[in-house]
Specification:
The protein is α+β, with helices and mostly antiparallel strands. It has helices at residues 2-27, 36-58, 142-151, 177-190, 219-231, and strands spanning 66-72, 77-83, 89-96, 99-100, 118-129, 132-137, 161-163, 173-174, 195-200. It has a 9-stranded mixed beta sheet with strand order 3-2-1-9-5-6-7-8-4. The protein is globular, with a radius of gyration of 22 Å. The chain starts with a helix and ends in a 21-residue tail after the last helix.
Length: 252
Amino acid sequence: MLAWLRTSIFALLAVAAPLAAVWFAMSNIPREKHEVADRLSQFGAEARTRLLPQFLRAGVAYPPMKVVLVGLKEERRLQIYAAAHDGKLRYIADRPFLAAAGGPGPKLRSGDRQVPEGVYRIRYLNPNSAAYVSLMIGYPNDFDRARAKEDGRTNLGGDIVIHGPTPGTAGCIALSEQAVEDIFTLVADSGVGNARIILAPRDLRVRGAPEPDKAKPWFKALYTTISEDLGKLPYPGGSGSSVGSAMPSAAR
């Protein structure tokens, strides 16, 4: 019995070792490095072909002067708002989430798998993402850090992105390949410094704020800020296509 077991183990190792060597070699093949301009050359024209009719219907020249993205966690939609030279934000279109982990409530710490809630800058575009291309969200912001200090929380996590298709995601938002191409191209064409994102538990223009488990006292202030910023944006399909020129107020 012992001899048979040894023989079986050696046979498995003989098969597994070459496979492991192949996997190691493939995983260490240098990946082609891209610049943002390379990605725009790759898919920018097709993305603009999809975006331009939507901008035309909204009466906004392309590329816009400002972009506000709205990520609605419960509805699993990423809404696009943009403003031309008049500074008035108009609803352009939306794109569905492919995946997003967690539930209602802001991100509190690394590893909690929550999509953040708040108003954030887009920090930069990553043309070499492990998930195709991505947009880095500026989490944590000043509000997140201040509340964490009050709570005594550390290690808030980070690297929250909007990225391309993956089987799942932890704290980020995954979009289809075409959708992330559209958002990447739009923000690149408009300028990263002109883009913001509001991440909300749900569309607070339609329904009240949720009551997450173990809610903290400051959640109310957070949802008030998010609600106020959403209230500055025209509701998709509603009457009136423009709002005041102010960008979301809490992105710091």
